[in-house]
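Technical appendix A lists one of the benchmark inputs used to test multi-chain prediction within the project. The record comprises two sequence entries:
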Amino acid sequence: MYDHIKPHEVITADRSSIWLNLYQMWKQRDLIRMLTMRSIRGRYQQSLLGIFWALITPVCYMVILNVFFGLLGGFSSGDETPYSIFLLAAIVPYQFFAKCLGDGAGAVLSNEALIGKVYFPRIIFPIVTTLSASVDFIIAFLFFCVCFVVLKQPIDMHLLVLPVAILGVAILGAASAVFVSALTVKYRDVRYALPTITQLMFFGSPVWYPSTIVPEKYHILWGINPLAGVIEGFRWCFFGTETASVKLIISSTVTTIFVGIFGIIYFNKIQRELSDMI
Amino acid sequence: MSNDIPNTPVLSEAKTSEDIEQTTVDSSEVLQVEDDSEYAIRIKGLNKCFEPYGYQQFRHVPMRLYRNSKTLWRNLKLRLQGKPVVKPGPRGFWATKDINLDIKKGEVVGIIGRNGSGKTTLLKLITQVTHPTSGRIEIYGRISALLGVGTGFHPMFTGRQNVYMGGMILGLSRDEIDKRFDEIVEFSEIGEFIDKRVKHYSTGMRSRLGFAVAVQLEAEILLLDEVLAVGDAGFQRKCLTEIRKMRESGRTILLVSHNTNAVKTYCDRAVLLEEGEVVRDGAPADVVSFYLANMFEDGKAKALGAGQERMGNGAVIIDNYWFEDELGRKVASPVCGETMTLCFEYVCASPDSTTDVEIGIAIKDEGGKYLSRISTEKTGYGFKKMQENGVMRVTIPRLPLIPGIYGFDYRMTAEGDEADYIVDAGEFTVAEGDFFGTGMCENHSPILLDQVWTLGDLREDDNETEVAEDDQQSAA
């Protein structure tokens, strides 16, 4: 019976490692998979259109933005790219980010029942949130690809960088979820502030306007908003225009990495107190 | 507590400098270090302090400054007014204080103590649900825990999903859980409800499934918190049978329970916690009797129904109660099998106009289940004439309650009108005693009955009574 004796556990009052324990997460992969599946299924339970919402929301966004900013506001992509697909290329990553942020806020809090009674690495909660949001992202992304082909957009070498761009989106989403989930436990105010922050990020990122609208000398500063560069990079892979700002992309990448590291450190720092604070 | 065992096998990455010295000194002990530990859990100097609610929020932030500035301002004002400055009270609540425990493999340890004595916190610290403020816990083996009713269950998941999740948290693979799944369902008697969401389960179903998961997933160490407090009698019996089986198969069990009899019967060792400290650690019988004897102060009168709502017109009321033994001495707790006298100090507002006073006491067990009612009405002892104040006494020869904790409701009527009525008016412990005169005590049933057993031939009915009488005489 004592075959499994090897993984002795030592609990001390010392602070646990502040770094991401990937091995621990790998050990819990079954659990992560199950919680993710459950979260996706639970999300669309008792809804008529189910998973189609992953399509409906970005399309609606696109139509609304197209009407108000494109037709009425006179905005355009800044080059020959059709405004609609230009919008969609930004809406898809933006929606993913907004979902990570929004669901991340409740990721730990809503699992109160579990946290007070059983232990497993708490970081699994925001990770599961990110994974379940990425399912929506994949659906929306595939829809975007279809539109991209249907609209006969030119395909060039830029597409080779796409995996890196997607990785950037994923890292930003996960990092925000991890950070926000921990922060919300400590300061419940975050929950109320988040909708406003998400709105601000929407207007502060090149979603419905090309990055050229902002003078280039401010692009490094602009990159403090990690979403701006991530969206720009994502869009650059598809349209590869001269107008894309390399400065913005690099600056945002730095911010994203910073958010990621800071989020994990912060989460690990307060994860031992989680059950006492909830 | 024997912490000073020299050849302590500590796992390599957790060695303290002391341990390394010891292992290098004696080469024969190095071998033992490689061998698996004889311990299941070792706890050293464990402390846990809960900070008051909201305090964490103010730890490093500007809010702290705001708070401090408010305190400074208040103190300044007090100083100017020439009043003494109020010092802030001690922050935080120490749920466990310097706990040292070594639990050997295969030991079944009962943890007892009053509410709030730190029992549950101790289990939560071992399962890492909450983290120690200082100290160290070493765990040798996998831990499966059941902290209260239906715990570790996600209410939105079905029973099936929860079973899998429980297994995965424990580190089992999907296949390993598959293998045990049917046993779990069968043990929990949950039937087709296994595919229903846990939030629709009854408390009994939750506790059954929780216990089944904890038990059937075969972790080496099992932590059970108050599992016996829920569920019906059948389920409790099943739990106890299972605990006995696990004990035989050499699993380590930590059992937190208010059921002192279960601790005495099923545990190899008992630990008594009081205010977060280990007060007694040893043989269950000793620890339990120490606990029961010290639950209340010695033989003092206690206020009846302190903090409870009083009902009735107050024509006659009872203020205090205490227990006396056969010789009329005040005792802390009545003894099983001995004469118990329960005394009530009464006050009567107008003794002349108050007649026909009846009193009834309903005795309950720890779980609140009524066991017996003693009263003046049914027994024909009703009091006709009262004084301004005095004592009512009720004597029960050979107290037929097993050792444990009991509570009672009390109601008094005067001329049929309710004079005084308190639910949960008081509580008492029954100390161990020798009811049957055999030195043995019945632990499982709450009520002890006088009994006579006979052995006879299989004969016609009319002769049987005679035989029984004969045997009774010879027994006497």
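Residues 1-7 of chain A have pLDDT under 50 and may be disordered. The beta strands of chain A are 9-12. Comparable benchmark entries are summarised in Table A2.
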